[in-house]
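Hi everyone, sorry if this is the wrong subforum. Our group has a chain we'd like a structural model of before ordering constructs, and none of us has done structure prediction before. Sequence below.
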Amino acid sequence: PGPEEAVDVRIEDRNLRETIAKLREDYRNVLIFRFLSGLSPEETAQVMQRSVGAVRVLQHRALSALKDLMERGSRV
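Answer:
Right subforum, don't worry. Here is the predicted structure as tokens:
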């Protein structure tokens, strides 16, 4: 990628991290474990001391909340 694309990627990454930081703690944790750390649902469940089903539901809700926050931020 060229310099402009690299800057765009860094800005998007920073915006995503700032938005994730606004989520409630359990939403933030499940997203970090699953997508940044690359843990499986089973590994995430073990770390978070929850069932695999609870992790999947939490992940779905966290992604939905993240999407809502990002959409609101883009309208400002």
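For your construct planning: The chain is about 80% helix and 0% strand. The mean pLDDT is 89.
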